[in-house]
Amino acid sequence: MIARILIVDDDTAHRTMLKTLLKSWGYQVDEACDGDEAVDKVKNESLDLVLSDVRMAKVDGLTALGEIVTYNPALPVILMTAYSSVETAVDALRRGAFDYLIKPLDFKALRERLSQAISQSKLTLEPKELRRQVVEARHTDILARSAIMHKLIETIKQVAPTEATVLICGESGTGKELVAKALHAGSQRSAKPLVVLNCAALAENLLESELFGHEKGSFTGADKRREGRFVQANGGTLFLDEIGEMPLALQAKLLRVLQEGEVQRVGSDHPIKVDVRVLSATNRNLEEDVASGRFRQDLYFRLNVIRLDVPSLRERSEDIPLLAGHFLEVYAARNKKNIRGFAPKVLDRMLHYPWPGNVRELENCVERAVILAREELIVESDLPAQILQKQDSGSESGNADLVGLTLDAVERIAIEKTLKATGDNKSETARRLGITRATLHSKLKKYALD
Question: Is residue 375 part of a domain?
Fold first, then answer.
């Protein structure tokens, strides 16, 4: 679908120039000569974005912005003005503007921001369409658009059909169990069980019984024989989560099972042959644990035939709109709520939050927002306090130092600080600033930062 943009400007010549330019970029264009007319068109026509001047003889752009955001918070509004001031820019962004551009316009930057605003808005409002764009890997239910995740999915497809033991590493909440499920689903063992055991959830004596089973009367409370997880997974796959938490004594017994292909119930003298593929996962640094003597080196090598590193959500931020849209659909249906999507500022908050709890935290955040939502869109007030405070504390503390500076000066500071935060990584700096690498290089030259 061709995006439709409303240009709002009381300067007829400037409005006509923008109309001609945007049409040459392939957009449909509508016009309004003041804020009142703009609000009326927003309420009565289907639009994808509003590009509005700030200073107009009748109703100004900031006043119109307030009414537009109240009526439709999902509609991105980009403001433009020849009168640059930090206070006005901050005020516009706080009122809900997607961005704030200075006249005379940098057409390359304008084109980038229009595309970004429209794409971002559509991503949050159309989770079903978004999923159709995903290049989904065979045998996986992993939703991803990022290059780093597609590389992982390709590796999963390559490793899944083999009998190799796999060590899955990553922070808590990144989806390591989902990777294990994908490996099992793509294996020759997929018709047999996938059995999961969290090694951190049980005391040592109970963990041994869970793994290997026990004979009746072998310890207090053992009132009948019980098969362990290895026997339950016979012919299939056993996934040992949090393997780094396994006690040393039990690590030796696990190593023997992997080497001999047989288990022995607690209290029994008779080994049982098992045919099990073992997958394991950890959020610990097992190399350090091996060096410190907390984890057996021989077991580490046995488990780590293939290592898969699951990236944190910070490393795959391109996937946030997709994942959030998926969770929105799931929890809206589960709670019988009619919610169409997210307001643009909500997605912006999500994209800039570090997500220490990774995908699990994002899922909890969306579930909470769905439950608290009073409108058809998720708005900022529906988000948890830590997400709002994380950015507000950072932005508020620096605002006092920016008062009186030109927007060029503010832009120079933003580029310098982002370069420092990324270790002078130009690609990551451009991504965080929402511009192309070419635009970044142009600005580096402009501000003599290159």
Answer: no
